[in-house]
Amino acid sequence: RSSDLVLQDTNGPCPLLAAVNALALKGRPIDALATKSDLVTQHEIRDGVERYLQTDSNESPAIDGIDTIGGTKTLSGYVKENSSFRSHFTSAKIEALYKGLDVSPFFTDVTAFEGEKDAAFFSALGIRLFHLWVVSDNEMAEDIRNKSYNQIQDLAVSDVASSPAAASFLNYPSQITELGIHRLKAVMSEGEVGILFRNNHFSTVTKIDGELLVLVTDEGYGDKSLIVFEMLSVSGDTIYIDGNAKEVEAIVLAAMDAYGDQFSRADILRAQEKLGEQATLNDIVKELSTQPAVAAATPQEAPKFYDQLIEMGFDPTKCFDVCTKNPSTLESAVGML
């Protein structure tokens, strides 16, 4: 199944876009995405989410079983006690989500958050909220155990001298742990779509073939259609995944970085197989640009100029583009580069 998704033109926390994309991956897109337009405005997304909340109000909220931690009500506990919690999300509240959303995770499990009104937004849409900052009890000092991020932050600011552990914990090098990855893989169902909170950002996350995949939504990847997900890992290694949950090959990534979607994955891999593993990207692009299907669309004298331009060290794709404009001489072709 194909899904229309929303990309971000600027970097930001945007929980609203993460939620809209999660609904699309679940096969329940908001009506604003049904127009098939290349551009959808903030107001269209806001109004579409508001209508979704109104028309799907009977949908079961996404909640988990832990109602309190250390005496503090969790998100699950808040949703269970407030049957009308969806009414909190007015048009103005939804609009405000473009600027971010304050959520405070507990470090006991990937589904544990403080029970705040605004944080229930994803529950209202039937989507679970997760994080990966899970720490075992023996790694946390007793005075910060069973406390949320906001509680530890308050403790660190108000009384650093008596709780150095609080200040130290907030300097944790990453908001992702091996235990967090392990727990999220165990908690998420195969094919489930949720929201991941990490480093003050919200992302759409899913589990496919046992792996955790985060949706790539930066507009900079808009011309790289094969890159759909990034696999989560503690190591920080970047592994890009396509829409069929297959890893995108290194040579294909390199080609897309340089030329976007100009060449197909199949053609790139065929050219690499023909030329051998040691072939450079320029070798592969030159091979692709001189294939019969490409050459047939090229003016008669273009191959001669193309080869000469390549020998002079110019970029293969730019050379091909110039040759298709039918320059009269080699000098004029060089001048067009």
Structure write-up:
This protein is an alpha+beta fold and 337 residues long. Helices cover 38% and strands 9% of the residues. It contains 15 helices and eight strands. The chain has a six-stranded mixed β-sheet. α6 packs across α7, α10 crosses α11 and α13 runs antiparallel to α14. About 3% of the residues have low confidence.
Could you give a quick summary of the protein structure above?
By secondary structure, this protein is an alpha+beta fold. Helices cover 38% and strands 9% of the residues.
**How many H/I helical runs?**
15
C-alpha termini separation: 42 Å
Looking across the biggest beta sheet, what order are the strands in? Answer: 3-4-5-6-7-8
Helix amount: 25-40%
How do the SSEs run, as a string of H and E?
A: HHEEHHHEHHHEEEEEHHHHHHH
User: What's the number of extended β-strand segments?
Assistant: 8
Rg: 25 Å
Tag the structure with descriptive keywords:
single chain; 337 residues; alpha+beta; 38% helix; elongated
Question: What is the strand and helix layout of this fold?
Answer:
Elements lengths: L14 H11 L16 H14 L12 E2 L2 E2 L1 H7 L9 H6 L24 H4 L4 E3 L17 H10 L5 H7 L7 H10 L5 E6 L2 E8 L2 E5 L13 E3 L8 E2 L8 H10 L5 H11 L5 H9 L2 H4 L6 H10 L4 H8 L6 H7 L1
Parallel strand pairs: 3-4
Antiparallel strand pairs: 1-2, 4-5, 5-6, 6-7, 7-8
Helix pairs in contact: 6-7, 10-11, 13-14
